[in-house]
Design a protein that fits this description.
The protein is an alpha/beta fold and 407 residues long. The structure holds cytidine-5'-triphosphate. Cytidine-5'-triphosphate (CTP) binds next to helix 12 and strand 16.
Amino acid sequence: MNVRWQQVSVLAGKRILLIIGGGISAYKSLELIRRLSESGASVTPILTYAGEEFVTPLSVSALAGQKVHRTLFHYDDEVEMGHIQLSRASDLIVVAPATADLMAKMAAGMANDLATTVILATDTPVLLAPAMNVRMWAHPATRRNHATLIDDGIECVGPNDGDMACGEYGCGRMAEPTEIIAAIERRFSDRRLTGRRIVVTSGSTHESIDPVRYIANRSSGAQGSAIATELARRGADVVFITGPAAVLPQGKVERIEVETAREMAIAVDRALPSDVGIFVAAVADWRLTSVANSKIKKHAGQVPVLELTENPDILKTVSRKEKDRPRLIVGFAAETANIEMNARKKLEQKGCDWIIANDVSSEVGVMGGSRNKVIFMSSTETEYWPCMEKTAVARRLVDRIATALDD
Ligand code: CTP
């Protein structure tokens, strides 16, 4: 008997929906299909009208071993598998090449052909392999669209530097099929968080003054949402407890909406036990000692005095719990001065395991912005992370959490 040891690829049995846009590098997508199929993945191709100018439907379907989907309004296609079903019946959507035009439509939320409709209708993760002329990639519009897509939780592989088909040199070449495969494998291979229960607090809290007024802060919820999205993408069971926020997570998370610090504290307590607690919320430190039942009226020459009472410190309470304390607790420190020193003090006083310190001075623009520059601290380490998208901070933090739980 001839026994051959063959390592089973993480791609075996995975369903990839591959959208081929209209760019010269579409020819590399044929190689991508071949490699994916060889690894045991099934590839359902969508070819855009522009894509058909570069590769033929016949070559795509021959390599994929499946029919090519091309139009949105095709009676037979809709009867067999409608575009909504098509968007859901995959483990990952790969767009390669992702042209400047496709990226712009995605960033704007347009749905005017099969590819863009599927992308807008999906809750499946999306991976882009951008490819375009160097100037198009550098154009402020594409920079904006790229940043929007990253913020939306979409991952990009490439583009790379190199000679371009148009004769220019620079950044814009589509990543090689081997690089795209590696990025796809990475997504499927890290399942260390599967089944881990993780509680995340996010957003701000509102503390009522009277029926129309409240005390609030500038937190948008973007960093907490990025962390929850990343955790969910990696298979964690996420309980996302959010105060009022402009940004919410994507993917499968259990969302609990609260308004005040006390409501958040109760929701956190109910959500325990969990493996990990991540406390990103900008919780109001104080509430009004007594909230007026009716609107406080203005009286000339008289300014109301608001008496405040301290709110429960949720992070500290959970960190000091004897029973049901999560194995790993991550706090955030919002500072405007002496960041490192204050954050280290918070780490000790609150009793959490890690603190992510960030500078929230208004000139830095962290609160409400898409980027963050943080210092990671544990009892033994201090790491200065460069300024990056909040989604990238989330990826790096979640990597670290997965590694810590593995130990
Ligand atoms: N936190 C909390 N409950 C509170 C206040 C803060 O759970 N009542 C958490 C935050 O979610 C964050 C950490 O504690 O993870 C630090 O919050 P931060 O606002 O930076 O500090 P404070 O503890 O409020 O202290 P200070 O306002 O004096 O900086």
